[in-house]
Structure formats: structure tokens, C-alpha cells
Amino acid sequence: xxxxxxxxxxxSLPSSVEIFDTTLRDGAQFEGISLTVEDKLRVAEQxxxxxxxxxxxxxPQANPRDEEFFRRATSGxxxxxxxxxxxxxxxxxxxxxxxxxxxxxxLVDAGTATVCIVGKAWDxxxxxxxxxxxxEGVAMVGESVRFLVDAGLRVFFDxxxxxxxxxxxxxxxxxxxxxxxxxxxSCLVLCDTNxxxxxxxxxxxxxxxVRHFGDLAVGIHTQNxxxxxxxxSVAAVVAGATQVQGTINGYGERTGNANLxxxxxxxTLKLGVATLPPGRLELLTSVSRHVAELVNLPPxxxxxxxxxxxxxxxxxxxxxxxxxxxxxxxxxxxxxxVGNRTRVLVSDLGGRSGTTxxxxxxxxxLDDRAAAALTEELKxxxxxxxxxxxxxxxxxxxxxxxxxxxxxxxRIEAYGVTSEHREVEDGTESSTxxxxxxxxxxxxxxxxxxxxxxxxxxxxxxxxxxxxRYAALGGIHLTDYRVRVLExxxxxxxxxxxxxxxxxxxxxxxxxxxxTIGVSPNIIEASWRALVDGLVFGLLHAGAETGxx
Length: 549
Prior knowledge:
By secondary structure, the protein is α/β, with parallel strands linked by helices.
């Protein structure tokens, strides 16, 4: 273990590290991710916005898509202000020559000033996977690095399976690292390729490599197969590593890579190690969520630092302490430091203090009586199946109702839905119609609408009934609709199909997004409640006025 310097910091701890992002290469190997060239360019822009030092763009010889990415990125289409682009490849082939190796040639032609190549540091892989001798394994690394350095490139060497190799045959692993170092590599990156190492092993072995190579930079690249990728990265930095490789949101092959969105604040906020240019750490949450959108995967709410639940408080003890003692009572860092925010989740586990704090988030003030009454109402609603932590918009409308507000846009008189299915020669034809009756500005209005399902039909009918009275409706759109079946009825003669359902509806006006909820044994009723709340919330925040606009 590292020796403390007397100030609470390990003596080997560097003052800063370089962040090397491999989302576009290693991250793209995550199941469910398939990036177009346009996607890769947009992700790279976000990485540059965050301020990482290096962006590994991919393997230029691997496929036409990566070839096109490097061509477009290096021709001026990708304008980087902070980061530098890196091309990835491997060493020459066994018994091959560097001057006619297609992978090395592709790296030279990629147009980047820096390249990263991978080579075997575990004797088992050299003899069994490559089927060659250990001497040839060392020569492949040394000759490839020298060829690229002689071509005028900065070279980072990824020592694949470093920790397995350092444990199984340290003499060979050090020979490989020496070959890269003496041939001109600028950084030796130790890779936990199988993701099976533990933090104490990574720290000990990294410290040995750092001592052996002196001033030459040592990096760390970890996989998450044992759930330790972030911890292993931090352990390597504690041991003296000065480059950290990983991906945004931990994307990567199998169980993923070290999550840079966690590693970066761990190093900077907990250990005082500089990772990004000044003022960029506050962009962490925004970049994390933007990249999630670009790769078309939902953000994980429980992600440390940037998740929507990272600073969310639900229990009454927690919310009470937050109200009395401030966020430090149950938050390990200031959420604003990483661009996130404190959230209070109102539920049957909370109390009046939580309800009052949640109202304050909406810019509303509850007195003790209103807070007590609303808290009891929320407990009853949650017993029926409502979960307001997932539906802030419906919750805000309830808070406003506790203060005496009622929505002024329309009053519902009646609604209905019919679905018709006809057997035809080549299958089934289906149609759904909805009818609504409203009072709008004292006028009774009836309208109908059709759609590809009951929610779509109800939405069309409601909008038709409101006509041109509220221009803001034109910008409000449904983006998602989710149904969950809750506890069903029990007892003799009770039908299993009579279960209560919970419906969540997501909407957006292009600037903000919100979620509303409805619960009922009738899926149409639950959907209608969520839909009406969603449109009312949108009109409220659009500043819509009653009457024709």
C-alpha cells in the first residue's frame, strides 16, 4: 500500500491525471450500442465539451465506418478545442514485417498525431492465442512502437492482460513493457482486460511498474467484470498512474469499462487530483445524459454523482435532516459540483418536512396545515398504487391543489373509447375512436378523435375539443407510455384480469420533459388521468391563459 505523506494523501498520488476516453471504441462494443459516423462525431463533441485529454476514435482499419469517421474528423468536420483524437490499432502480426503491416499502415494514414496500440503482456496469450514464441511476442511490441514513432507519431502502448501477466510471469510482462518503453512509447497503459483483478492487486502491481520506469507515464485501463473497474482505476492512480482510460457511463464489452463519470469526480472531489480543465466538472451530468441519448440507452438513475437518484431523498429521517441541517447531512458532495441537484422524493416513507421541501422545489410554499393534509393524501394515493417519485408533474399539480388551485383550462364532463376489430381476407383490421365532452369557458364541447390505440385516440379527441383555444398544445407531444400491472384482486370468484394498473406518460414541449401518472383497475381510466395531468401541466408552464388565444 502507498505511504501517506502526512497530509492525508498517498505520497505516490499525482497532482493531475490525463483522462483518455474510449467510448467510441471500447464503449461501442457494449451490447445494444451501434453508432453511426454521425453519432460518433456528436459523441466526440460532447467529450471535447467535457474536456477529456484524449478521445480514442476507433480502429481505422477495422471497418468502413471507422475509416469514414477518421476521414471526416481529421478533415476539419470535427473541431476539437480541448481534446486530441487518437487512433487505435494493434502490433504487427506474428512473423510479419512492420513496413507492410496493414494495421500499422492504417494508423499512420489515420491523420491523428497520437495512436494507441495493443500488445500481449501475458505469456499464456502469446503462446496459446497468438501461437508464437515469447521472444517474438516481445519483438512484435518493440518493432511496432518503433515503426510508429519513426513515422512521427506519439504512441501509447496498451499492455493487454497486464495484471494476469504480471502475476503469472512477471519477467515476461516486464520484457514487453521494456520493449515498448525503449522503442519510444510515451505511456505504458496497464490493462485489466478480463476485469478480474481487485483493487489491492492493481495498486501493488501498478506501484511496481511506476517505480521501475521512473518518469515514463503509466496508465490504467480496467474492465468491470468483478465490479471493481472504478475502484481499480482509483487504486492505480493512488499508486502513481497518470493516465486513466475509460468510457462515459461505463459502456464497454461484457460488463463494461471503468465509468469515467464516476472516476473523474472520485479523483477530483475526493483525492484532489485534477482531471479536467477548470469549470468542466460541472458539465459531467449534462454530458453523461447527452451521450446516453446519442447511444440510445436510458441513463441509469442510480449512477453515482450524475444519476437522477444520486441525490434523491425519500425516507422521512433523511428529508427531515436535510431541512434542518442542510444537504451535507446526507450528501457526500455538493450536487452542483457535478451539475446535478438535490431531489426530495415524496412518498409514504416521508413526512411533512419532505412534502414541504418538495413543494419548495416547485417554487410553492405550504403551511403546516396544508403540508399535513397533503402528506396524508399522498400516503393514501401511494397505498392505491401511485408512485410520485417517478411523476413530478402530477405531484406538482397535487401540491397546487392543496393550496387551493384548480386547473382553469377545461372541465371534463364525459369521455369514452371504442375499439373495433374486423376479420378481413388478409388479417385483422383495427380502429379506435374516442369521444370527449368538456366545458370550456362555459361552453359545452363534444369532439372525437381516432388513433392507433386508446391513448392516442383520447389525446386526439381532447385536442380537437379544445380547438384553437390553447396554441401551446401544438408544441406538447407524448414521447413515451408505460403500463405496469400492480397487485391483482384475490378471493373466490375474483378475476385475475381485474388487476390495478399504473400508467406513466412522458411528454415534452421541446424545452422541458415531464412525467405524469394514473392508477386504476381500468387501463383506459388510468391512461386518461395521466394524459389529462400531462396536458394541464404543459399548459400551466407554457403560461396559457383561459379563453381563445
